[in-house]
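Support reply, case 0932

Customer input (verbatim):
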Amino acid sequence: MRVLVTGASGWIGSATVAALLTAGHQVTGLARSDASAARITALGATPVRGDIEDLDGLRTAAADADGVIHLGYHHDFSRMAEAAQTDRAAITALGAGLAGTGRPLVVAAGVLGLAGHPVATEADGPVPGVHPRGANGAVALALAEQGVRPVVVRFAPTVHGPGDKGFVAALVAAARRTGVAGYVADGANRWPAVHVRDAAALLRLAIEDAPAGSVLHATAEEGVSGRQIAEAIGGGLGLPVESVPVERVDEHFGWIGRLFSLDSPASSEATRRLLGWKPTHPTLLADIAAGHYFG
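Our regenerated output:
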């Protein structure tokens, strides 16, 4: 299969490119800079210059592919609404390039803020207003009416592994800045997690075999408590572990505080049954204990 990957030079994207190539697929990666193109080439894929805001280019690149995995996103927390709007336009353009072919379009989303309780499942939808990106999955799934095989993969907020510079790295930075590895209130709130290589394996399965309209959860662990995460960070840095009152979350953690406060456990049982996905790589706490975030 000839697969186009947006965000191919990024954290999840580069692992996905490697997984696809290992499985025998040909991969083209969207590259918005010389550095991204060089990274994609080094992975063994073919770069195509473009950007997720170049809608004509997205349509053309999708039409030349047997399937698309859309991971590119502007992660700017100061302009969340604009980023979500750009993503919707990109999904629509990629769908137009695939229209009438029955070919797959795999789109990334997240599990934070789903309506399910006590544990969210693949059948649950997003709570309106938690994140403007939440509605984009529905935009993708509607492309089935245009002869596309749309699939939505909702990722755990923590996609970890050696080299991760995401949410856990931000929590480590907050601990270093304040001298305290903090958790919110009683620390019982839960964050799902998945190793980046397990996430990449799921994306490969999704583009190969997931039926049209599938919603999948990339959550190897349905919920790791905030207190456990703080204790692992404190142990790695040699810092005290303390509760941070809700009213001091922004002060202590910075931009990540409100996200870290959420209790959003999410199951992946339906995903595992559907595709036979079996996460095999280290857990989040094992990766923290291994020292990957303290270099």
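We compared this against your earlier run and they match. Two observations from our side: The mean pLDDT is 95. Residues 65 and 250 are 44 Å apart (CA to CA). Please reopen the case if you see a mismatch on your end.
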